[in-house]
Design a protein that fits this description.
- By secondary structure, the chain is mainly beta.
- It has one domain (22-159): Jelly Rolls.
- The chain contains one helix and ten strands.
- The longest helix is centred in the N-terminal third of the chain and has 17 residues, at 2-18.
Length: 164
């Protein structure tokens, strides 16, 4: 009986933790071995609403073999009408002592990185988000061909927090 209560508690706890009322869209694409410089990760999104504001995030899962303290990304959002917004972004991935940032108890860390805040998808239809790494070695013009240590790239849309 005691063992059954323990399992019920664990299941309820997992159900409680997995509830995420702000999530609108949350998808990941796995990077098989290393992230090739020319490998563009694409997310096709149809927002549920053309009036509400949303916060956009790029999610990165990286392993201990990620050897850089930062991450440069080129993110391109294609609108249904053909308009394109392209950003070059830099994110901090490690502390000065080399310890990787992010959440996780194992050697895989998960980073939820801000992309855009208060976005209104005012055009109905499908949006396309393309994510590509733009890493370079210090002093080198040529980009890193195979970025090791990134295991998954994700894109997330959340409802904005209402201010009461």
């Amino acid at each position: 009986m005691r063992n059954n209560l323990r399992w019920i508690f664990i299941i309820l706890l997992l159900g409680f933790i997995s509830c995420d009322s702000n999530r609108i869209y949350d998808e990941y694409i796995t990077i098989p071995d290393s992230w090739q410089k020319d490998n563009i990760i694409t997310f096709n999104i149809t927002p549920p609403d053309t009036i509400k504001q949303y916060n956009l995030f790029i999610n990165i899962r990286n392993a201990n073999d990620y050897k850089y303290s930062n991450l440069f990304l080129i993110v391109e959002m294609n609108f249904p009408n053909g308009r394109v917004i392209k950003d070059t972004l830099e994110y901090k991935m490690a502390k000065p002592n080399g310890e990787l940032l992010g959440k996780g108890f194992t050697d895989i860390k998960e980073n939820k990185l801000w992309y855009k805040e208060g976005v209104v998808f005012n055009e109905s239809g499908e949006y396309k988000v393309n994510i590509q790494h733009a890493m370079r070695e210090n002093g080198s013009v040529k980009g890193v061909e195979n970025l090791e240590g990134i295991t998954d790239v994700g894109f997330r849309i959340e409802k904005t927090q209402s201010k009461n």
